[in-house]
Amino acid sequence: MTSRDAVTIRHVAFEDLGVLEPLLAQRGFRVTYLDAGIDTLSPAAAADLLIVLGGPIGVYDTDAYPFLSAEIDAVAARLADRRPTLGVCLGAQLMARALRADVRATGRHEIGYAPIDLTAEGGRSVLAPVAGVPVLHWHGDEFAIPDGALRLAGTSGFPNQAFALGDWALGLQFHLEADPSRIERWLVGHAHELASCGIDPRTIRADAREHGATLADAAREIFGTWLDRALA
After folding, report:
1. All structural domains of the chain
2. What is the per-residue pLDDT for 23?
3. Which residues of the chain have pLDDT under 50?
4. Contact 44, 76 (CB under 8 A)
5. Does this model's pTM top 0.85?
6. Cα–Cα distances in Å, from 79 out to 85, 115, 136, 203, 224?
7. 16, 53 in Cβ contact below 8 A?
Protein backbone atom coordinates (compact mmCIF):
# COMPACT_ATOMS: atom_id res chain seq x y z
CA MET A 1 0.00 0.00 0.00
CA THR A 2 1.40 3.39 -1.00
CA SER A 3 1.68 5.75 1.96
CA ARG A 4 0.19 9.21 1.59
CA ASP A 5 0.22 12.32 3.75
CA ALA A 6 -2.89 13.70 5.45
CA VAL A 7 -2.13 17.09 6.98
CA THR A 8 -4.71 18.29 9.48
CA ILE A 9 -5.01 21.86 10.75
CA ARG A 10 -6.37 21.81 14.29
CA HIS A 11 -7.61 24.84 16.26
CA VAL A 12 -8.40 23.27 19.65
CA ALA A 13 -6.98 19.96 20.83
CA PHE A 14 -10.27 18.18 21.50
CA GLU A 15 -11.72 18.93 18.06
CA ASP A 16 -9.59 16.32 16.31
CA LEU A 17 -10.13 13.85 13.46
CA GLY A 18 -12.23 11.58 15.69
CA VAL A 19 -13.68 8.66 13.76
CA LEU A 20 -11.87 9.79 10.61
CA GLU A 21 -8.38 9.14 11.99
CA PRO A 22 -8.60 5.31 12.15
CA LEU A 23 -10.10 5.34 8.65
CA LEU A 24 -7.12 7.28 7.36
CA ALA A 25 -4.71 4.91 9.09
CA GLN A 26 -6.43 1.90 7.53
CA ARG A 27 -5.92 3.49 4.12
CA GLY A 28 -2.22 4.01 4.68
CA PHE A 29 -2.18 7.74 5.42
CA ARG A 30 0.46 9.34 7.61
CA VAL A 31 -1.52 11.83 9.73
CA THR A 32 0.19 15.04 10.80
CA TYR A 33 -1.52 17.64 12.96
CA LEU A 34 -0.62 21.30 12.59
CA ASP A 35 -1.78 23.45 15.49
CA ALA A 36 -3.10 26.75 14.10
CA GLY A 37 -1.16 29.78 15.25
CA ILE A 38 1.75 27.63 16.46
CA ASP A 39 2.98 25.42 13.63
CA THR A 40 4.02 26.53 10.18
CA LEU A 41 1.44 25.71 7.53
CA SER A 42 3.99 24.93 4.81
CA PRO A 43 3.34 21.13 4.93
CA ALA A 44 -0.24 21.80 3.81
CA ALA A 45 0.82 22.79 0.31
CA ALA A 46 2.24 19.46 -0.83
CA ALA A 47 0.10 17.08 1.24
CA ASP A 48 -1.94 14.47 -0.58
CA LEU A 49 -4.89 15.50 1.61
CA LEU A 50 -5.60 18.59 3.70
CA ILE A 51 -8.23 18.54 6.45
CA VAL A 52 -9.13 21.75 8.27
CA LEU A 53 -11.02 21.22 11.52
CA GLY A 54 -13.31 23.35 13.66
CA GLY A 55 -12.78 25.86 16.43
CA PRO A 56 -14.53 28.57 18.46
CA ILE A 57 -13.34 31.56 16.42
CA GLY A 58 -14.59 33.13 13.20
CA VAL A 59 -12.86 33.60 9.86
CA TYR A 60 -13.46 37.35 10.24
CA ASP A 61 -11.38 37.44 13.47
CA THR A 62 -8.13 38.05 11.61
CA ASP A 63 -7.19 41.10 13.70
CA ALA A 64 -7.40 39.13 16.92
CA TYR A 65 -6.06 35.89 15.38
CA PRO A 66 -3.72 36.86 12.51
CA PHE A 67 -2.88 33.25 11.69
CA LEU A 68 -6.32 32.93 10.10
CA SER A 69 -5.11 34.96 7.14
CA ALA A 70 -2.32 32.46 6.51
CA GLU A 71 -4.83 29.62 6.75
CA ILE A 72 -7.12 31.25 4.19
CA ASP A 73 -4.16 31.73 1.84
CA ALA A 74 -3.03 28.12 2.26
CA VAL A 75 -6.52 26.79 1.61
CA ALA A 76 -6.99 29.10 -1.38
CA ALA A 77 -3.77 27.83 -2.96
CA ARG A 78 -4.85 24.21 -2.61
CA LEU A 79 -8.32 24.87 -3.98
CA ALA A 80 -6.88 26.77 -6.93
CA ASP A 81 -4.82 23.65 -7.72
CA ARG A 82 -7.82 21.34 -7.17
CA ARG A 83 -5.98 19.38 -4.49
CA PRO A 84 -8.10 17.20 -2.14
CA THR A 85 -9.34 19.37 0.73
CA LEU A 86 -11.89 18.68 3.47
CA GLY A 87 -13.17 21.37 5.82
CA VAL A 88 -15.30 20.90 8.93
CA CYS A 89 -17.18 23.78 10.62
CA LEU A 90 -14.56 26.55 10.87
CA GLY A 91 -12.61 24.60 8.25
CA ALA A 92 -15.54 24.81 5.83
CA GLN A 93 -15.91 28.50 6.59
CA LEU A 94 -12.23 29.04 5.81
CA MET A 95 -12.75 27.20 2.52
CA ALA A 96 -15.73 29.40 1.70
CA ARG A 97 -13.78 32.57 2.50
CA ALA A 98 -10.82 31.31 0.44
CA LEU A 99 -13.27 30.98 -2.46
CA ARG A 100 -14.45 34.57 -1.87
CA ALA A 101 -17.83 33.61 -0.43
CA ASP A 102 -19.32 35.55 2.47
CA VAL A 103 -18.98 34.18 6.01
CA ARG A 104 -20.69 35.95 8.90
CA ALA A 105 -21.82 35.65 12.49
CA THR A 106 -25.56 35.14 12.83
CA GLY A 107 -26.13 35.85 16.50
CA ARG A 108 -27.82 32.44 16.68
CA HIS A 109 -26.55 29.02 17.65
CA GLU A 110 -27.32 25.52 16.49
CA ILE A 111 -25.80 23.06 18.95
CA GLY A 112 -26.64 19.41 19.50
CA TYR A 113 -27.75 16.34 17.57
CA ALA A 114 -30.44 17.02 14.97
CA PRO A 115 -31.23 15.93 11.40
CA ILE A 116 -29.80 17.57 8.33
CA ASP A 117 -31.80 18.21 5.16
CA LEU A 118 -30.06 17.05 2.01
CA THR A 119 -30.68 18.90 -1.23
CA ALA A 120 -31.39 16.94 -4.40
CA GLU A 121 -27.68 17.15 -5.22
CA GLY A 122 -26.83 16.15 -1.65
CA GLY A 123 -28.99 13.06 -1.90
CA ARG A 124 -26.94 11.98 -4.92
CA SER A 125 -23.63 12.86 -3.27
CA VAL A 126 -21.34 11.15 -0.80
CA LEU A 127 -23.59 12.55 1.97
CA ALA A 128 -26.47 10.22 1.06
CA PRO A 129 -25.80 7.86 4.04
CA VAL A 130 -26.59 10.64 6.53
CA ALA A 131 -30.19 11.06 5.33
CA GLY A 132 -32.43 10.69 8.36
CA VAL A 133 -29.49 10.42 10.77
CA PRO A 134 -29.10 13.17 13.40
CA VAL A 135 -25.73 14.88 13.02
CA LEU A 136 -23.79 16.94 15.53
CA HIS A 137 -24.33 20.67 15.01
CA TRP A 138 -22.10 23.17 16.81
CA HIS A 139 -22.06 26.53 15.06
CA GLY A 140 -23.19 30.12 15.12
CA ASP A 141 -21.61 31.40 11.90
CA GLU A 142 -22.82 30.74 8.39
CA PHE A 143 -21.25 30.74 4.95
CA ALA A 144 -22.60 31.49 1.50
CA ILE A 145 -22.17 28.77 -1.10
CA PRO A 146 -19.09 29.64 -3.19
CA ASP A 147 -19.46 30.26 -6.90
CA GLY A 148 -19.22 27.01 -8.81
CA ALA A 149 -19.89 24.83 -5.77
CA LEU A 150 -22.88 22.56 -5.23
CA ARG A 151 -25.04 23.15 -2.15
CA LEU A 152 -25.57 19.74 -0.53
CA ALA A 153 -27.36 20.26 2.79
CA GLY A 154 -28.99 22.71 5.18
CA THR A 155 -31.37 23.23 8.06
CA SER A 156 -34.16 25.75 8.54
CA GLY A 157 -31.93 27.95 10.70
CA PHE A 158 -28.73 27.50 8.70
CA PRO A 159 -29.66 26.75 5.10
CA ASN A 160 -26.07 26.37 3.84
CA GLN A 161 -24.50 23.44 5.65
CA ALA A 162 -22.41 21.64 3.04
CA PHE A 163 -20.88 22.28 -0.37
CA ALA A 164 -18.69 20.44 -2.83
CA LEU A 165 -16.39 21.38 -5.65
CA GLY A 166 -16.13 18.38 -7.93
CA ASP A 167 -14.88 15.30 -6.13
CA TRP A 168 -11.86 17.05 -4.62
CA ALA A 169 -13.23 19.61 -2.13
CA LEU A 170 -15.90 19.14 0.53
CA GLY A 171 -17.01 21.65 3.16
CA LEU A 172 -19.21 20.55 6.07
CA GLN A 173 -20.69 22.94 8.62
CA PHE A 174 -21.77 20.06 10.85
CA HIS A 175 -19.59 17.46 12.58
CA LEU A 176 -19.48 13.94 11.20
CA GLU A 177 -16.00 13.34 12.57
CA ALA A 178 -16.71 13.76 16.29
CA ASP A 179 -16.13 10.52 18.20
CA PRO A 180 -19.25 9.98 20.35
CA SER A 181 -17.21 8.05 22.92
CA ARG A 182 -15.21 11.23 23.55
CA ILE A 183 -18.06 13.75 23.53
CA GLU A 184 -17.21 14.66 27.13
CA ARG A 185 -14.14 16.52 25.85
CA TRP A 186 -16.45 18.74 23.79
CA LEU A 187 -18.82 19.32 26.69
CA VAL A 188 -15.98 20.44 28.95
CA GLY A 189 -14.13 22.42 26.27
CA HIS A 190 -17.26 24.31 25.25
CA ALA A 191 -18.79 24.55 28.75
CA HIS A 192 -18.96 28.35 28.69
CA GLU A 193 -20.69 28.42 25.30
CA LEU A 194 -23.20 25.79 26.38
CA ALA A 195 -24.01 27.73 29.55
CA SER A 196 -24.35 31.05 27.70
CA CYS A 197 -26.72 29.42 25.18
CA GLY A 198 -28.77 27.73 27.90
CA ILE A 199 -27.98 24.24 26.60
CA ASP A 200 -27.88 21.38 29.08
CA PRO A 201 -24.82 19.18 28.45
CA ARG A 202 -26.79 16.20 29.71
CA THR A 203 -29.00 16.44 26.61
CA ILE A 204 -26.02 16.26 24.24
CA ARG A 205 -24.49 13.45 26.30
CA ALA A 206 -27.70 11.41 26.08
CA ASP A 207 -28.09 12.11 22.36
CA ALA A 208 -24.51 11.00 21.74
CA ARG A 209 -25.34 7.67 23.39
CA GLU A 210 -28.52 7.34 21.31
CA HIS A 211 -27.30 8.51 17.91
CA GLY A 212 -23.51 8.41 18.07
CA ALA A 213 -22.91 4.89 16.80
CA THR A 214 -25.29 5.26 13.83
CA LEU A 215 -23.75 8.61 12.93
CA ALA A 216 -20.23 7.18 13.19
CA ASP A 217 -21.15 4.36 10.79
CA ALA A 218 -22.59 6.88 8.31
CA ALA A 219 -19.53 9.10 8.72
CA ARG A 220 -17.13 6.27 7.94
CA GLU A 221 -19.08 5.44 4.79
CA ILE A 222 -19.21 9.10 3.72
CA PHE A 223 -15.54 9.80 4.35
CA GLY A 224 -14.48 6.50 2.79
CA THR A 225 -16.39 7.20 -0.42
CA TRP A 226 -15.16 10.78 -0.57
CA LEU A 227 -11.53 9.72 -0.10
CA ASP A 228 -11.86 7.12 -2.86
CA ARG A 229 -13.16 9.75 -5.26
CA ALA A 230 -10.94 12.66 -4.20
CA LEU A 231 -7.74 10.65 -4.43
CA ALA A 232 -8.59 8.53 -7.46
Report:
1. 4-230 (3.40.50.880)
2. 96
3. none
4. no
5. yes
6. 7, 29, 26, 38, 21
7. yes
